[in-house]
Amino acid sequence: MDRGVTAGRHGGALLVVGDVVTDVVARHRGPLAAGTDTAAVIRTLPGGAGANVACWAAYTGCADVRLLGRVGADSAAWHERELVAAGVRPRLIVDPEAATGTVVCLVDTGAAAERTFLSDSGASLRLEPGDWSDGLLDGVARLHLSGYLLFSESSRALAETALAAARARAVPVSLDPASAGFLAEWGVDRFLAFAEGLDVLVPSRDEACLLTGLPDPADAAAKLSRLVPLVVAKAGADGALVARRGAVDARVPAPLAAPRDTTGAGDAFTGAFLAALVAGAEPREAAAQGCRAGADAVRREGGRPPREDGGG
C-alpha cells in the first residue's frame, strides 16, 4: 500500500491548518499607471490559502472540513461567519496583538486575468505550537498544511508539531508549497527537508520546477515523487500531472474556462482534490475533480466557491 495514496480513513474529516486573511481584490484593465490613478473595481473578500482550500473541500463534497487558523480581533467574527456559511468548522485563534492578515490582489481584467499579490501576513503566520492540540486529529482522515506556515518561525514550529502528531496516528499529511517567491527566499533545501515527512505534495508547475531545478514540469514532478510518495503538480489551463515512485503516471486535462479572476484557482484544485481523496478516489480521479474546481474558480471573482445562500 502506497503511503499517503490509499492510506487514510475514507469518509473521515479533513483538517486544514493554514492562513485566514482578508483579500482586497482590485480588478483593473491594462498596465498600472505609475504616479497617478488607475481605474479599478475593488472588493473586500474573505481569503487565505488555507481557508480557501477548506471552503473548496466542503463545496466539492467533503462533509466534515475543519480549519485551524489565527486572526485578529478586527475581523474574527466576520471570518468565522464566512467559514461556517461555507460549510467549514473553524477553530480561529484570536491574536491579542496582530490584525488579521491582508492581501491586496491586483487582477488584470485582460484575457490572461493575471494577478499580483501584496501581502501582509498579520496574525495568520503567528500560529504557534501552543495553538495545537492532538485532539484536533480525532476523527480526521487527512491533515493538510498550507505552505505559508513554513515562512515564519512560530507557524513553522506549529506545522512540525502537527506533522509529528499526524504521523504518530498514521494520518496522511499533504502540503501545498504556496508561493515560488517565498520558497526561493526561505530556501529549497530547507523546504525539501520538511517535505520528507509528507505523504502528498501539491505544488504548482513553477514551484515543482523551482524545487528540483528542472525546467520540465513532468520531470520535476517525477523527481519530487522520489521524495514524497504522491506528487500532483498543478498546471492551470494545462491540467495536472500525477507522479508516483519517480514517474508521471497520469496527465489530467483541465476543462476549458474563460478566466475572470485566477485568484484562488490553485486552492480550489487542492481543496477538491483532497475532498476526493477523503472520499476514497484514486489520485487520477481526484486530480480530475481538482481540475474541474480550478476551472470553476477562475470563472468567478475571489478565492472562495459560491455559497448556497447566495453570499460570497
What are the SSEs and their pairings?
Layout: E1 13-17, E2 21-28, E3 41-47, H1 49-59, E4 65-72, H2 76-85, E5 88-95, E6 101-108, E7 115-120, E8 140-146, H3 153-168, E9 173-176, H4 180-186, H5 188-195, E10 200-201, H6 205-212, H7 217-224, E11 230-234, E12 240-244, E13 247-252, H8 265-278, H9 283-298
Parallel strand pairs: 1-4, 1-8, 2-6, 4-5, 8-9, 9-10, 10-11
Antiparallel strand pairs: 2-3, 6-7, 11-12, 12-13
Helix pairs in contact: 1-8, 6-7, 8-9
Please summarize what this structure is.
The protein has helices at 49-59, 76-85, 153-168, 180-186, 188-195, 205-212, 217-224, 265-278, 283-298; strands at 13-17, 21-28, 41-47, 65-72, 88-95, 101-108, 115-120, 140-146, 173-176, 200-201, 230-234, 240-244, 247-252. It is of the alpha/beta class.
Report on this model:
By secondary structure, the protein is α/β, with parallel strands linked by helices. It has a single domain (about 15-20, about 50-100, about 120-300), classed as Ribokinase (UDP-N-acetylmuramoyl-L-alanine:D-glutamate ligase). It has nine helices and 13 strands. It has helices at about 50-60, 75-85, 155-170, 180-185, 190-195, 205-210, 215-225, 265-280, 285-300, and strands at about 15, 20-30, 40-45, 65-70, 90-95, 100-110, 115-120, 140-145, 175, 200, 230-235, 240-245, 245-250. Strands 5-4-1-8-9-10-11-12-13 form a nine-stranded mixed beta sheet, sandwiched between helices. It is globular and about 55 Å long.
